[in-house]
Design a protein that fits this description.
about 20% strand, 4 strands, alpha+beta, Ribosomal Protein S8, Chain: A, domain 1, globular, single chain, about 80 residues
Length: about 80
């Protein structure tokens, strides 16, 4: 299965850069017809993961993807599935 991967470890403390990267990866998945994006906010304090989930829950973003999954085995991963 083809997927895109976005690791946020390097920009965990740069709010604007995180938004830009999240927008970019979602647009790329849609344009290329890729069904899955794996976002890695890492484990840490959980603040970055909350930030990513808040971004993904925005109405304008939520309508772009089909389903959101949190990895049950790895707290530091989020999967975004597209139709």
């Amino acid at each position: 299965m083809t997927k895109l991967k976005l690791d946020l470890h390097n920009i965990y403390n740069k709010g604007q850069a995180i938004k830009i990267e999240l927008n970019r990866i979602i647009e790329e998945a849609i344009q290329k017809g890729i069904p899955l994006v794996e976002i890695i906010p890492g484990k840490g304090s959980g603040q970055l993961k909350k930030h990513v989930l808040r971004f993904l829950e925005q109405k304008r973003i939520k309508k772009l993807y089909h389903r959101l999954e949190k990895d049950g085995k790895n707290f530091g991963r989020i999967f975004v599935r597209f139709r």
